[in-house]
Every structure is written in C-alpha cells, then in structure tokens.
Write a structure and sequence with these properties.
Structural class: alpha/beta
Radius of gyration: 13 Å
Mean pLDDT: 85
Number of strands: 5
Shape: globular
Strand content: 15-25%
Distance between the termini: 27 Å
Low-confidence stretches: none
Number of helices: 2
Strand order of the largest sheet: 3-2-1-4-5
Number of domains: 1
Length: 102
C-alpha cells in the first residue's frame, strides 16, 4: 500500500529567512516541494549582474538545503503565482510559517 505523498509550496521572499523556511518545511515532512520566488523581480537566470548572481547562489543553496534537510525532492521553481495556476498543494509554507492551502 502506498503512503500519501505530501506536496508543499515554499514561498521565498527577499529577506534572508531561508533557515526558518527550511526548518518549517522539515517539520512538515514533505515528499515534494515546489519553490515560489515571490519577490517580483526578473527571472534569476536572466539577471547577470552581481546582484543577480548572488540571488542565484542564494537560491541554489536554498534548494540544496531543502533537499538535504527534508529528504524531499524540489520538483519546480516558479517566479509568479500565475505559473502555478491549477496546481494543488497539501500545504503552503511562507517566510512567516504555514499558510492555509486553498
């Protein structure tokens, strides 16, 4: 018998709350995590400024930390909520903790 899979949306903000986000995710024991960059900035892959490179480095470290700390697979990265239209998540975790999933 298969266990229920747990899909979580992790919302990343501009602040350095990555450690808190990873800890909150670890408490939820997800199987799969989708990450939403909700900061209103351009696609991180298109910004080759020092700030853009620092943002990509931060994001790479965050994704690795999520996978290492939770054992979950990061299945996607979105730059806006529009990209997630129609997707369903068991839980949503933001910088300030859990958010009700609709």
């Amino acid at each position: 018998m298969l266990a229920n899979m747990s899909d979580i949306l992790a919302i990343v903000d501009r602040d350095n709350t990555d450690d808190q986000l990873v800890e909150e995710l670890a408490r939820r024991h997800p199987d799969r995590v989708t990450v939403l960059l909700e900061d209103g900035e351009t696609d991180p892959g298109l910004d080759d400024t020092p700030r853009g490179r620092a943002r990509r480095d931060r994001l790479a470290q965050l994704l690795a930390a999520i996978e290492q700390r939770t054992g979950a697979v990061v299945v996607g990265l979105a730059g806006s909520r529009d990209q997630l239209r129609g997707w369903r998540f068991d839980r949503i975790v933001g910088p300030s903790g859990p958010i009700p999933a609709n």
